Amino acid sequence: MARTAPRRPPTNCPVCNTRLAVTRLSCPSCSVSYPTARARFDALLARLGIERPAAPAPSRVELMEQVARGEIDIDEAMRRLDTKEV
Description:
Layout: E1 26-27, E2 32-33, H1 34-47, H2 60-69, H3 74-82
């Protein structure tokens, strides 16, 4: 099987150019979703004694975008700002 260059999912809506929220990735050829693959990879790293780097804290703009998308409420955003998670 020939290898092709990796492809990235679209980041912006092709209609209005607003940033897209990727909610699920899966591979129809191997039937493994991204969360499953990620969990397996993390388990492998743990067995090897390698810790996965922590995700960076969201910026203030990212927090506002999360509130706008309904992913978190304003109280959660304020809590994250107050505890310096940003």
